Amino acid sequence: MVDILNEGLIETKINCTRLIGMLMEGNDFASGNDASLSLLVGLLRLVKDKKHLNGVLAGLSLLKTVCSRESVRYSFVNVGVVPQLVELMPEGRLALKDCPNTIPNAVKLLMKASENCTQFVLLILWAICKFAPVECASLAVDAGLAAKLLLVIQSGYNPVLKQRSAELLKLCSLNYTATIFISKCKLTRTIQ
């Protein structure tokens, strides 16, 4: 079925996606890592095809179901699905922006785990703050993002991650004067 999802006609792919979803909900689906990665490729192709809204919806629905399995979720994160989905879906950015817990939870996760996790969190925060800079950047700064971004910049993380942190810090500071931004960063004692 996964092969059909990867190589069939669009209607066949959509129907195959729905069938896999039904099978997974019925717990009749055996998933291995190879099948999961092949499934992921097919689903990402389906979701990227904006000409067929039914395919996008079916693909996102199955991605949600598939990601409910912990082992599959980790493999999806490891192959870089999160950045692709955030970049791909403007509706996803709107949904993330509208959720009141997104920014505070993302800020809490920053630098809590691996460098990859920090990179994904930065990507999500970047997408949200770029989407609605006035509203989201101030929420992020209030949640403590600026101080954490300064820590990322000073860390031993890769240069691309540090650059993204600097860009996000600059985006967050646009709505503030220097004095207010420093006070919002809760860095007054450190600077003095």
Task: Write a structural description.
This protein is mainly α and 192 residues long. Helices cover 78% and strands 0% of the residues. The protein is built from 14 helices and no strands. It has helices at 2-7, 10-25, 33-48, 53-66, 70-78, 81-88, 90-98, 102-109, 115-131, 133-142, 145-154, 159-173, 178-184, 188-191. Helix 3 (33-48) runs parallel beside helix 6 and helix 9 (115-131) runs parallel beside helix 12. The chain is elongated and about 60 Å long. The mean pLDDT is 82.
* Count of β-strands: 0
- Note poorly predicted spans: none
> What sort of overall outline do the alpha carbons produce when their principal axes are compared?
elongated
Ends apart, CA distance between termini: 63 Å
Order of H and E elements: HHHHHHHHHHHHHH
In angstroms, what is the radius of gyration?
Answer: 20 Å
The share of residues in helices is: over 70%
Fraction in beta strands: under 5%
User: Taking all residues together, what is the mean pLDDT?
Assistant: 82
Give the count of helical stretches. 14
Main pleated sheet? none
Given helix and strand content, the structural type is mainly alpha
SSE layout and pairing:
Layout: H1 2-7, H2 10-25, H3 33-48, H4 53-66, H5 70-78, H6 81-88, H7 90-98, H8 102-109, H9 115-131, H10 133-142, H11 145-154, H12 159-173, H13 178-184, H14 188-191
Helix pairs in contact: 2-4, 3-4, 3-5, 3-6, 6-9, 7-9, 8-9, 9-10, 9-12, 11-12
